[in-house]
Amino acid sequence: MTTRWHTLRWRVLVSVTILLSLSLTQVTEGFPFVFNTNRKVINWTVPEDNWEIHSVPRSITPHVELKKYPNRTNPDPGQSDEEFLARLRNLKRNDTMARMLWYDTTPDGLSYPPFVDKALKLFNLKQVAFEIENSVMSKVSCTACKAGAGLLQHYIRAGKTKGEIIKLIYEFCVNLNIQSPRVCEGVSTLFGSEVIYVLQRVNLGPDEICSFVIGDACGDVYNPYHEWEVIFPPVPKPPVAELSMPKEAAPFFKVLHISDTHYDPHYVEGSNANCNEPLCCRLSSGRPSNPNDAAGKWGDYRKCDTPKRTVDNMLEHIADTHKDIDYILWTGDLPPHDVWNQTKEENLEIIKETVRQMSEKFPGVPIFPALGNHESAPVNSFPPPYVNQVDISIAWLYDELDVQWRRWLPQSVSHTVRRGAFYSVLVRPGFRIISLNMNYCNNKNWWLLLNSTDPATELQWFIYELQSAEFSNEKVHVIGHIPPGHPDCLKVWSRNFYRIISRYESTITAQFYGHTHFDEFEMFYDPHDLSHPTSIAYIGPSVSPYYDLNPGYRIYYVDGDHDTTTRLVVDHESWIMNLKEANLYDYPIWYKLYTTRAAYNMKALRPVDWSNLIDEMADNQELFDLYYKNYWKNSPIRPVCDAECRKRMLCDCKSGRSHDRKHFCQDVEAKVDDGSSKSWKSWLYRGLTNSVSTVTHTYEAVSQILK
């Protein structure tokens, strides 16, 4: 799910509680954020979980029978320097010739009453909203979070009922025009109950809550309830051998990666694409005020999700173009972004419908799914197994996933899917795929405030699977939804995950995620030697254009079955549909945007090769510009990327551990700063030189005339 949207509930709840707190100054004495320090309201402890990892059935029989494709050719091993430069020139020429789509934004014409205006200036809610949507937090968001969490706890302790608190949230949301009345009602009702339930049971204050949720921007507050470490078996880490280059002519697997479909069954062509709600292009969005605001037939660059015809067209194109796919990775986020009015029933219907689509378009092709954060209702709500009350348990989702996923997965995974929506499957002899439920690292999952210690015992199970794979000499690919280095992943969870990747670096040969909607990657290094890269996480592009993006998918070529296989990704391609042209000509065309090794002139795709690419992009502006174009899936409305943007993006590539950028990014940022400084000095020097030269020539000319 895109990071620019999925925290709508934070925007509403934080904004409302800040303004509520300011209003308290009218009726209370002293500073409004001084609350009762008696935190215990409900005597609640985490129930015991006696789940035995060793008793869980394991997939030990190869699950995939490979088909024979006699006309299959090996992926392009690369291009010469001349071909590579020619490709760059063509890409640049194509960019220049591309017809630009109109994209008008209207200024915010809202006027607020004096009290509200004062509050907005004091807390800068627009900056808070921007930071939350982009998962880039500062002290502004931290202050807002502390105020909001503190006031909610204050009202809970003051004895206000759940209904009273939800009503207050709704009224301020509407009065401040934070969202439309129906969005305010949906958010306050859907999320208010869950948040209140959790805050009634946590023994934490605002400082601890916000440090837990926001991370570094809110300080590293020690919190014994959320400090934990996984346990490794007493088995020494094997010596790490240097990864060899995959053989060019060796057999390979062709793998399709689809992520973040966000299929919207209520998308309507011609409806308002420029509405005042978080998701538009529906009948409920109203009529467009002018032709430019009408939703396109095949989708829209604004805040709109994917129409059914676009999903169908993409799947038909893939089935026709890539007839030799060996298996599919499907990394979640199926429902649309209308999180204020979703129901469990509707989300389950979308899951069933998309599973039907995939089964019909790819009969007989194994599919390995991972769970996104949008599949639950409300969004991001994934209670751990010990929360087993019927009305709030997550069993309604996990049980149905087990039924739907069983089309492609062996029966042995049923136990872990129903427990926590994670599983392990032996794909081929010596090759295993492990699918993780990354919602247990999601810092927007309020249930983790109760207890974040390895929810569902997933990471400890993960270690058990990896150790078994190491004993069996198996290589492992890991799939999930939220990338572990993304700011949406809890710091303590990400830190433990990072240690696991380092310990089993010889076993894990690739990772695959979605969530961001962009086309990117994430690096992992040895925690004790940051010069030694250990793993690469591939982050696939979204099918949904939400927002400012073209729809896309990826094809990977994985080292296949042979005696010296590495199970590394040998190469990968990104394919997109030009949404602007599809709407303009009513004819969608999917095409290959780039092939990785050819585009970036990489000899292989080992972790060390990706790490070197980051260093090269820090030094080479043209190479970075190409990556930036591909990152945005060649969107015609992508913003300009300045030096700060470049540093942030390269730091994202470098950081497989969330909320810990200072440990990974100093060298890359210094290179970019140094390059910018050199460019500035060179520009100034050239300017001064030209000025002096002009003056000299003018003086000489005048002298000649005077003679």
Automatic annotation (TrEMBL):
<feature type="disulfide bond">
    <location>
        <begin position="441"/>
        <end position="489"/>
    </location>
</feature>
<comment type="function">
    <text>Converts sphingomyelin to ceramide.</text>
</comment>
<keyword id="KW-0378">Hydrolase</keyword>
<keyword id="KW-1015">Disulfide bond</keyword>
<keyword id="KW-0732">Signal</keyword>
<dbReference type="GO" id="GO:0016020">
    <property type="term" value="C:membrane"/>
</dbReference>
<feature type="binding site">
    <location>
        <position position="262"/>
    </location>
    <ligand>
        <name>Zn(2+) 1</name>
    </ligand>
</feature>
<feature type="disulfide bond">
    <location>
        <begin position="173"/>
        <end position="184"/>
    </location>
</feature>
<dbReference type="InterPro" id="IPR045473">
    <property type="entry name" value="ASM_C"/>
</dbReference>
<comment type="similarity">
    <text>Belongs to the acid sphingomyelinase family.</text>
</comment>
<feature type="binding site">
    <location>
        <position position="481"/>
    </location>
    <ligand>
        <name>Zn(2+) 2</name>
    </ligand>
</feature>
<dbReference type="InterPro" id="IPR004843">
    <property type="entry name" value="Calcineurin-like_PHP"/>
</dbReference>
<feature type="binding site">
    <location>
        <position position="517"/>
    </location>
    <ligand>
        <name>Zn(2+) 1</name>
    </ligand>
</feature>
<dbReference type="GO" id="GO:0005764">
    <property type="term" value="C:lysosome"/>
</dbReference>
<feature type="disulfide bond">
    <location>
        <begin position="281"/>
        <end position="304"/>
    </location>
</feature>
<dbReference type="InterPro" id="IPR011001">
    <property type="entry name" value="Saposin-like"/>
</dbReference>
<feature type="disulfide bond">
    <location>
        <begin position="275"/>
        <end position="280"/>
    </location>
</feature>
<keyword id="KW-0964">Secreted</keyword>
<dbReference type="InterPro" id="IPR041805">
    <property type="entry name" value="ASMase/PPN1_MPP"/>
</dbReference>
<feature type="binding site">
    <location>
        <position position="515"/>
    </location>
    <ligand>
        <name>Zn(2+) 2</name>
    </ligand>
</feature>
<dbReference type="GO" id="GO:0005615">
    <property type="term" value="C:extracellular space"/>
</dbReference>
<dbReference type="GO" id="GO:0046872">
    <property type="term" value="F:metal ion binding"/>
</dbReference>
<dbReference type="GO" id="GO:0006685">
    <property type="term" value="P:sphingomyelin catabolic process"/>
</dbReference>
<feature type="disulfide bond">
    <location>
        <begin position="145"/>
        <end position="210"/>
    </location>
</feature>
<dbReference type="GO" id="GO:0046513">
    <property type="term" value="P:ceramide biosynthetic process"/>
</dbReference>
<keyword id="KW-0325">Glycoprotein</keyword>
<feature type="disulfide bond">
    <location>
        <begin position="651"/>
        <end position="665"/>
    </location>
</feature>
<dbReference type="GO" id="GO:0016798">
    <property type="term" value="F:hydrolase activity, acting on glycosyl bonds"/>
</dbReference>
<dbReference type="GO" id="GO:0061750">
    <property type="term" value="F:acid sphingomyelin phosphodiesterase activity"/>
</dbReference>
<feature type="binding site">
    <location>
        <position position="373"/>
    </location>
    <ligand>
        <name>Zn(2+) 2</name>
    </ligand>
</feature>
<keyword id="KW-0326">Glycosidase</keyword>
<dbReference type="InterPro" id="IPR011160">
    <property type="entry name" value="Sphingomy_PDE"/>
</dbReference>
<feature type="signal peptide">
    <location>
        <begin position="1"/>
        <end position="30"/>
    </location>
</feature>
<dbReference type="InterPro" id="IPR008139">
    <property type="entry name" value="SaposinB_dom"/>
</dbReference>
<feature type="binding site">
    <location>
        <position position="333"/>
    </location>
    <ligand>
        <name>Zn(2+) 2</name>
    </ligand>
</feature>
<dbReference type="Pfam" id="PF00149">
    <property type="entry name" value="Metallophos"/>
</dbReference>
<keyword id="KW-0479">Metal-binding</keyword>
<protein>
    <recommendedName>
        <fullName>Sphingomyelin phosphodiesterase</fullName>
        <ecNumber>3.1.4.12</ecNumber>
    </recommendedName>
</protein>
<feature type="disulfide bond">
    <location>
        <begin position="142"/>
        <end position="218"/>
    </location>
</feature>
<feature type="binding site">
    <location>
        <position position="333"/>
    </location>
    <ligand>
        <name>Zn(2+) 1</name>
    </ligand>
</feature>
<feature type="domain" description="Saposin B-type">
    <location>
        <begin position="138"/>
        <end position="222"/>
    </location>
</feature>
<keyword id="KW-0862">Zinc</keyword>
